[in-house]
Design a protein that fits this description.
single chain, alpha/beta, Glutaredoxin, eight-stranded mixed β-sheet, 4 helices, globular
């Protein structure tokens, strides 16, 4: 199978880049807002169980992935029920910064998302990326959510 055939059957070739629900704060990430969020394996730091990012995305919520050494931004109370937050870290359970950390097995998530430094990825409930950029705290996330869900 060719790469194009695989991309077509996995829907990774469908993009909404430049659309009204896609916003890149900067060019920190290799992946762009409007692209389909890739899957990747991980290990929960809290209990050592394995999982997949697609499982974390499943449901009627946004998923905020915080890559790097900075703590994930705190989502305000008014948004906590619609935004699930995970810190994606390299290393192992012993070096994880928090219990909500997901250990990036073999660096797949960093590779698939094009992450080389601290970055945020906000995945929409439909599995597409809504927001990308440096970890600048919660304000860009709040601004995005207000824009797309009209709060």
């Amino acid at each position: 199978m060719s790469k194009d055939t695989i991309a077509d059957t996995t829907q990774l070739s469908i993009t909404y880049r430049g659309g009204p629900l896609a916003y890149d704060l900067d060019d920190t990430t290799g992946i762009r807002a409007g692209d389909r969020a890739p899957d990747s394996p991980y290990i929960f730091a809290s209990n050592g169980k394995k999982g997949r990012l697609f499982d974390a995305f499943r449901g009627p919520h946004f998923t905020l992935l915080s890559f790097g050494d900075q703590p994930a931004p705190q989502v305000p109370d008014g948004y906590k029920n619609i935004v699930h937050v995970y810190t994606i870290t390299r290393g192992d359970i012993a070096t994880a910064s928090s219990d909500d950390a997901l250990i990036d097995i073999d660096g797949y998530a960093h590779h698939f998302y094009g992450i080389t430094s601290d970055a945020l990825i906000l995945v929409r409930p439909d599995g597409y990326i809504g927001l990308t950029g440096r970890n600048l705290g919660p304000q860009p996330i709040i601004d995005y959510l207000r824009k797309v869900i009209d709060r």
